[in-house]
């Protein structure tokens, strides 16, 4: 597919356009807006505790989304929490993609015992729901950023591994791959020089769709106090801290809840849009 056709399909995919616009807005807000906000995410001010949202009545120098029970500005914590979520999701999804792709290609190309071992490992992980597995691991090793990345990686590589394995098994039967083997090319040369370029589309589609799921899982673990350690802000622990004030101070839970919903929807829309753009069998 040439560049002109790709751009045309992007512009005609409503999912891609809506997801991209929402994602750009969220990322700009999280990474640029904090420079203009005079508050610190961990700074307590008991004189300003539980203030309702001022919105833009006092500009960026006011508490636009109010303060929490410790007097911390909700907006700056919301934006910094978004930075943590995006950073963790990006690192975890990249590691998922590397692990799932390598194991999937080894399983699909070599088959036999290699395939059996890798597929049984996939079956063992899939036998337990991702969130339950993540909770169990975090409960054993304790909450930390490194453990959180490990948990999110371990619980998310299986889907990509299975899809890549099936694709490799199809591609390796094609004539150009068989010809390379006859000419004496090594297995790793065939896998990563000839087969790999033919499965990159699925890697891009799946990893883009995984971002929203990983952000939601990180928020779920943080809600259970098994994610990003407090007092560092996270959308999950902000929702957990504000749930007991839902009636009297609803902004404490509504702000991170809406941000989480928009971020997950943006990535899901973008992932569906990328699938529509790259999958030439689909009509946009």
Could you outline the blueprint of secondary structure elements for this entry?
Elements: H1 3-12, H2 14-31, H3 74-110, H4 112-126, H5 130-141, H6 145-154, H7 158-171, H8 175-182, H9 187-195, H10 200-223, H11 235-242, H12 251-278
Helix pairs in contact: 2-3, 2-12, 3-4, 3-6, 3-7, 3-10, 3-12, 4-7, 5-6, 7-10, 8-9, 10-11, 10-12, 11-12
What does this structure look like?
The chain has 12 helices and no strands. The chain is an all-alpha fold and 284 residues long.
Task: List the defining traits of the structure above.
mainly alpha, elongated
User: Span from first to last CA?
Assistant: 14 Å
Secondary structural class? mainly alpha
The major beta sheet can be summarized as: none
Helix content: 55-70%
Compute the average pLDDT.
Answer: 88
Tally of alpha and pi helices: 12
| DSSP E strands, number | 0
Residue windows where pLDDT falls under 50 for at least 5 positions: none
Q: How are helices and strands ordered from N to C?
A: HHHHHHHHHHHH
Shape category: elongated
Q: What value does the Rg take, in angstroms?
A: 22 Å
Q: What amount of the residues lies in strands?
A: under 5%
Give the gist of this structure:
The chain is mainly α and 284 residues long. It contains 12 helices and no strands.
């Amino acid at each position: 597919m040439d560049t002109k056709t790709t751009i045309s399909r992007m512009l005609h995919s409503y999912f891609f356009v809506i997801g991209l616009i929402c994602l750009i807005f969220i990322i700009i807000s999280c990474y640029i807006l904090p420079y203009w906000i005079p508050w610190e995410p961990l700074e307590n001010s008991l004189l300003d505790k539980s203030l309702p949202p001022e919105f833009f009545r006092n500009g960026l120098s006011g508490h636009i989304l109010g303060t929490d029970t410790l007097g911390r500005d909700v907006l700056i914590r919301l934006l910094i929490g978004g930075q943590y979520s995006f950073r963790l999701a990006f690192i975890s999804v990249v590691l998922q993609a590397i692990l799932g792709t390598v194991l999937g290609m080894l399983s699909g190309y070599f088959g036999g015992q290699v395939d059996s071992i890798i597929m049984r490992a996939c079956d063992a992980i899939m036998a337990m729901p991702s969130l339950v597995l993540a909770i169990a691991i975090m409960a054993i090793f304790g909450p930390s950023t490194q453990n959180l990345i490990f948990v999110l990686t371990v619980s998310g590589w299986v889907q990509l591994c299975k899809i890549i394995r099936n694709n490799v098994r199809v591609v390796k039967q094609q004539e150009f791959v068989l010809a390379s083997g006859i000419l004496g090319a090594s297995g790793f040369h065939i896998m990563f020089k000839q087969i790999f370029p033919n499965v990159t589309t699925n890697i891009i589609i799946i990893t883009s769709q995984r971002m929203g799921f990983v952000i939601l899982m990180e928020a779920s673990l943080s809600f259970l106090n098994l994610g990003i350690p407090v007092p560092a802000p996270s959308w999950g622990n902000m929702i957990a801290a504000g749930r007991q004030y839902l009636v009297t101070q609803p902004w404490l839970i509504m702000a991170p809840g809406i941000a989480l919903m928009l971020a997950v929807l943006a990535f899901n829309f973008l992932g569906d849009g990328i699938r529509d753009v790259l999958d030439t069998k689909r009509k946009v």
